[in-house]
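Late entry, written up from scratch paper. The run itself happened at the end of the previous shift, but nothing got recorded in the book at the time, so transcribing now.
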Amino acid sequence: MAKTKVSTLNLRIEPGIKEAVREAAAREHRSVANMVEMLIRRHCEQAGISVPEQSEPFPGNPHG
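Output as recorded:
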């Protein structure tokens, strides 16, 4: 089950970058939001930046 989203990020980017993210997401069968999150997590991991995991929305529920 998908994680519960609790925060919104609005940003402005060049149209070419937006299209590239859309294409990358489509190739990996991801949403654009999920692709951006994955790219940020990957960058943080490579840069040694800790990203806390989101806690379970329903503790004790085996389905998330």
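Residues 40 and 51 are 10 Å apart (CA to CA).
(Scratch paper discarded after transcription.)
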